[in-house]
Design goal:
It contains 6 helices and 9 strands, in the order H-E-E-E-E-H-E-E-H-E-H-E-H-E-H.
Amino acid sequence: MTEVALGLRTSGFSVWLQRSDGTTILPTDPNRRFIQRGGAPTGVAPAAAGPNNASVIGFRWRTRPAWEIWNGIQFYGRSRAMHEIDVAIVPQSVGADLRLSGGSPIGRPRVAIECKDVGTDGSLDEMRALVARLYDVTLLHAHHRHLPFPSVQAIHPGSAPSSKDRAVVTYWQENRRTKNILARRTGFVAGTIPLASYHHIESHANITVGSPAVTDLVDSVVEWARRNAR
């Protein structure tokens, strides 16, 4: 989460730390504590609950709309099942709307990173589980006739009604306009890469502190931001 933020700042984006009530942590504030989410995943805390829940990181390009980087937030799928996304990037408008009363978003983040800190190589079933999770949180145009919210949005609530935030027609389109990553401390077994490639999931292996693999992952997210958040 912080490595991605540092990569964005190095690339010219404005980056800031933000309390759980939506206020910015300023360099001159007497309390500049950043609270890392721990324990079980949750939804977004309401602003009325105060600033002492999990913090987020905000970023934007110049005067373009702002974005938020989340850690350990649960997203609703179409099935109403909850799915934790380890690191997610969403429009700031989504976070602002959720902080009005608290809760979990419905739909798919624009960037989703699944993190696996395990000693064995990633299995085909592990990759299938991520494919299934992304399938359930995807909101296509045709789904909205069966769901109780407006048809224009790819994530609810709060997503802007611009063309890039509209629900698309196929999974193929949604897979390619979002950034989907499975990052592991170790590698992947044979057979996972074709499945990941078909569903447009990037496989990043051997992620350890300070490794070239971390730089590659951060560069990939920053490149997505250059194309989509500017």
